[in-house]
Every structure is written in structure tokens, then in C-alpha cells.
Known about the structure:
The chain is an alpha/beta fold and 362 residues long. It has two domains: 2-174 and 338-355, Rossmann fold, CATH 3.40.50; 179-336, 3-Layer(aba) Sandwich (Rossmann fold). Helix content is 36%, strand content 14%. It has helices at residues 20-34, 85-96, 110-114, 134-146, 156-159, 202-212, 225-233, 248-255, 273-280, 291-296, 311-321, 327-336, 339-355, and strands at residues 2-6, 38-44, 57-61, 102-105, 123-126, 151-152, 190-193, 216-219, 240-244, 260-263, 285-288, 303-306. The strands form two sheets. The chain has a six-stranded parallel β-sheet. A six-stranded parallel β-sheet has the order 9-8-7-10-11-12, with helices on both faces. Helix 1 (20-34) packs across helix 13 (339-355), helix 6 (202-212) crosses helix 11 (311-321) and helix 9 packs across helix 12 (327-336). The chain is globular.
Amino acid sequence: xxxxxxxxxxxxxxxxxxxxxxxxxxxLVAGLLQRGHxxxxxxxxxxxxxxxxxxxxxxCEGGVSQPSxxxxxxxxxxxxxxxxxxxYLWRRALxxxxxxxxxxxxxxxxxxxxLTPHTSTPLAHLVSMGSVSTAMDAVIAEIARSHPQHLAxxxxxxxxxxxxxxxxxxxxxxxxxxxxxxRPNADAVxxxxxxxxxxxxxxxxxxxxxxxxxxxxxxxxxxxEAYARRVEASxxxxxxxxxxxxPTERLQEEMGRCxxxxxxxKWNEAYGNVVVEAMACGVPVxxxxxxxxxxxxxxxxxxxxxxPDDGEALTKAVERAWQIPRHxxxxxxxxxxxxxxxxxxxxxxxxxxxxxxxxxxT
Length: 362
């Protein structure tokens, strides 16, 4: 099939500003290409296609990046800035839609969801976050009623945030596991990866590292510089080691040296890409029993769980995870999170979108 993938308008592909959506986009595009589909990617100016996606066509549009709903008040109105990248992306998508069999939206934004009943080419949405906005909750619920097959979610925990009339389509996520090298032995360091922003809860991981007197290596875009400085000031000097936002090859090389990866979201993460990336290197994960990471981590198998926002419980989870044989997380990732399996789930979803007409009356 001919597929147009419309990327996030929060940033360009390769910037890191799109967070986990960038990794999802790479896995989705590469996986569909491997299954013989023709894929075009529509993204912000300066975007670059990641490894494995070279056979796709890339279209770029300029414009002002979209504010993330993650950083807005729950009751905030829908925002579209002047000269918005979001608008330019969807103007191009609507103009070109006749050349495609299906459009895939990766943006967690109101406009593309609202467009669903108005396109001539079926428009499918891979929802990338849980509930953070009343306006988004409402439009997702509306599309769930009128075009239920057109929505897919990463995990059951994420989908449970929304008012859905039936069982959700769950697709998980996928990874090119050949790019993640298993390391049978670890250094005596802890790891943490993600955007450096309050909703990611870095301060909890920092506190655990300080309690255990272990260095904490940190990877990710310093999205909120003031927050990063506050976290650093909250623990003894030398506890935190800022490693930056790294490409996959360097990230997996460094992450694989960690004894345990901490994952500390303060909200309902839709999936938890870094959790699987760590497991693929053989690193067990200590995380809160919340959201997608709480589904991915199997106690004693690939990591350990703690009560949400309980620092003492998280410290104990790290100590338990440290004892897990490192071949177990890798084996779990291979069984559940390969790129080929993800592409198969995406293909089945798109087949359902193309096969099933929307509900009557839409």
C-alpha cells in the first residue's frame, strides 16, 4: 500500500524534541518498508530520515513548532500558532492525499483528529500520549465513536485513559534490536533517559542514586534548563553525569554499561521506549507501577516495580533489579518488541482501516 506518515509538529525528526514519537516513526517507517509498502514521510524542515528508512521519500515543511499538550493546562483551549508547522503539514497532506491509500498521523493534536471524517483518503491515528487535555479527550472520544478502527494505542494503560466504546487497538512499539548490543557485565552505575522536564521525574532517580551512593548517568534533551539545575542542586556534587542527547549507536553503547535503568514518570506514559532500549542491552529496569512502563516491566523477569512516587520503594526496586540476570531483559525484548512484529501489527491495523467503513451517520 502507499502510505503517507505525517510526523509530529513539535519538532523536526532528529531534533529529539519529539521524544518517543521520533523512535516510533523510525520503527514504523522502516518496518513498513521491509514489508514492501511505499512510504512517504511528511515532517518539519531540517528533518532527516534515520537509518533503515532511506527508501522512504521525505517531504519537509517549514513553520512554527506546535506547543506540546503535555505542557498545557488540562482545560487549555486548542492552540494553533501563526504560521504553524501543524497547519502547513496538514495542508500538504490534504493536497497530496489522492496519491496515497492511507494517511497515518503521529501527532498528538486536535486538528488531524478533527479532520478524520473530512478526508477522502482514510486517516489513521497512532495516539502517542495518555490523557492530558480535556479538548484532546473529547476529540479522541468522538473519533472512537465515529471511526473506531482509525485509532490505535501503544498500551492498555494508555488506552484506558480515554472514553472508548469498545476494545482498543493495541500495537505496542518496535525496535531494531540488532542496533542494541547485549552487554553481559555492568559497571556500578545507574542510568536514566528521557527529556529533562518535570513530568519525567528525574529528581526521584537522582534521590535514589544519592541514597545508594551510585553515579547516575543521564541521557536526553535538556528541555527545561531551570529544572535540570534544580535537580542537580538537590543531590551531592558528582552524583549526576549529563551525557546529552545521543544517537542510538552511542546511546546503547553507554546505556548498556549501567547496572539498572531508572524510569520515573510522573504521569501515565503511553509506552516507555527507553525501558525497552535498556532491556535490549541487557539492563534491567526499576520503574513505577504506572502507565506503559508498568506494563512492560515484569517483576523479577526484566526489572522491578515500585509504588508510584514512593522513593523508598523505588530504592528497593533498584536493589532487586540489580540481581536480575542480564540475559533475561534481552530475551524479553526479543520476544515482545522486535521491529518486524510491530510492523505486522501496524499492517494489520491499516488493513482494518481500509476494510471497515466508518459508522453510519458520520
